[in-house]
Amino acid sequence: MERKAKIVATIGPASQDDAVLERLIQAGMDMARLNFSHGTQAEHAARISSLRHIAGRLGTALAILQDLQGPKIRVGALPAPLTLVAGQEIILYPQEEPLRFTHHASRITHHASHVNPPASRDAIPVDFPELFQSVSPGDRILMDDGHLELIVQQADGKTVTAQVKTGGVLSSHKGINLPGIRLDIPSFTEKDAQDLAFGLSLGVDAVAVSFVRSAQDVIQVRQAIEKLSPHNFPFLVAKLERPEALDDLEGILNIADGVMVARGDLGVEMAPEDVPGAQKRIIQAANRRGKLVITATQMLESMIHNPLPTRAEASDVANAVFDGTDAVMLSAETAAGEYPVESVAMMDRIVRQAEAGFTEWGHVQVMEASEHDDAAAMANAARELAHDRDVTAIAVF
Predict the structure, then answer these.
(1) Domains of the chain
(2) For the segment 11-21, what is each residue's pLDDT rounded down to a tens digit?
(3) Quick one: 321 exposed, middle or buried, by C-beta within 10 A (0-12, 13-18, 19+)?
């Protein structure tokens, strides 16, 4: 039986060799995601060329998804991973700010200098200057998908003194989240604009916009696409990673061609127990509007290091299919994991088994259509006819 839900696999160091790319396609990868938060344009161009060459040789349709970085807040460059201990006091400083640090008893003070010091156990660079004007004492700062937590003690607009609440090992360029804080920053950055122009020049099939908060963020990217490539309109996917995006979900669906349930950042920005309900709400809204929806992040996370997923992960993938997701996405599992091909093959088997149970568990019903939406009305009619008469195929002209 043909699988309906598609599999998106992120390409990275673990999967960039031609032999692995070929096996990923053969295992069931329908769309290759290129994460522009990492890698150079030259590296991405080489991967796109390899993917298209291999897919062409195999006679397989393969889509390319360009995932723009957006205004991601990250830890700066660290000389080595740092171990943070609960109760420890640290200073965060802008990556480009030249500071030197001295200790007075248990307190840390900072002074201007002309040499940017290396990060230390008590001083951590941040590559996002706006953070220092946005936090106040008592605010939470989460790092590495929420695995580490700091509490702001002091903020003077230039640096932040914080105390470690939940410790752990911190590596370079790990993500930073500020739950409950609304940053007045654009979701479409200058780097995104440059990467978008590059992606359009290579004819990517879809573009994912990161950290979308409202329909206006999607409009800005769509306008940029129309200006840069008036004759080539890739599929535009809005990544829903912040709670405020849910406040304008219908508006975002009006503009975007699809949405991504980006559960990683969404699960850090909001309470973990709220994420499953948010996922269902997003999928249902996208289904009603006939818009693509991708469910992503930590779907088979344990397969980064293990050849088999947990039972909970298998249930998670299957339930996303039961909810009506159009695609499921693998991130670190295929980009940096030890079992990239096995992860895609496992995802393929789980999705097929879930779809085999559609008769019992239900499937996507008629999508919402306005009285003037002829395309949606025809699609609904064709779907009903195909379902009632057990039609094998539908020809579209």
Answers:
(1) 6-71+186-361 (3.20.20.60), 82-177 (2.40.33.10), 366-397 (no CATH)
(2) 999 999 999 99
(3) buried
